Amino acid sequence: MPRSLTAKIGPSILNADLSQLSEESQRLLDSGADYLHLDVMDGHFVPNLTFGHPLVKCLRSKIKDAFFETHMMVSNPKQWIEPMADAGVNQYTFHVEPVQNVPLICRKVREAGMKVGIALKPGTAANFITEYIDQVDMVLIMTVEPGFGGQKFMESMMSKVSWLRDNYPDLDIEVDGGVGPTTINACAKAGANMIVSGTAIINSNDPAKVINDMKCTVNNALENNICNY
């Protein structure tokens, strides 16, 4: 396992109080979050509807330096590349399932000045991305069906994480869906180093402890042994 990888915890702000989004986001960052995971849903690719680039731009005006990852659960990810880049997004993670030309989207995202993330639904095989893995910065393995928070963690998805880690040891691998203190061990053992967690962090009385504990678990699995208790 490469020592260059370290754990990064990105709370999903979808579970926060959206009426006080900047304050909630800053609270998460002050609690030790490494980045913010922004779930964008269009009501087509997934049945739910959340927020778009105007809200992200407003959030960026309040939070200047944090790393923003947008998880684009949308049918036409190409449509939102430029608006999200203008809104101040750092990484644009899109689903491969509705896209006919994945390399084109990857190129457009990079040309817009953002990092490239690709996301796989539970039913999409990990080796689907083999032909364009060299064009991405990160792969997101969904551990629930995308669209709604609070779903049960699918441990069977860890085989995809393990396959990616075995074949691409330096790759940033993110997991999203039902991840918290009771499921972080499975994610860490499989080789994930980027952890999205919503309700487990947001609803905790001590989000800093939850973030730190999960980060330690992942770093120990990565053999970095970076823990601050």
Automatic annotation (TrEMBL):
Its EC number is 5.1.3.1. A divalent metal cation binds at H37, D39, H71, D176. Binds 1 divalent metal cation per subunit. GO terms for molecular function: D-ribulose-phosphate 3-epimerase activity; metal ion binding. One of its GO terms (biological process) is pentose-phosphate shunt. It catalyses: D-ribulose 5-phosphate = D-xylulose 5-phosphate. HAMAP family: RPE. InterPro entries: Aldolase_TIM, Ribul_P_3_epim, Ribul_P_3_epim-like, RibuloseP-bd_barrel. This is Ribulose-phosphate 3-epimerase. Keywords: Carbohydrate metabolism, Cobalt, Isomerase, Manganese, Metal-binding, Zinc. It comes from the Eukaryota. The keyword Manganese applies. The gene is LOC105361338. The keyword Nuclease does not apply. Its cofactor is Zn(2+); Co(2+); Fe(2+); a divalent metal cation. It comes from Ceratosolen solmsi marchali. Transmembrane segments: none annotated. Belongs to the ribulose-phosphate 3-epimerase family. NCBIfam families: PRK05581.1-4, rpe. The active site is at D39, D176. Substrate binds at S12, H71, G147, F148, G149, G150, G178, G198, T199. Pathway: Carbohydrate degradation; pentose phosphate pathway; D-xylulose 5-phosphate from D-ribulose 5-phosphate (non-oxidative stage): step 1/1.
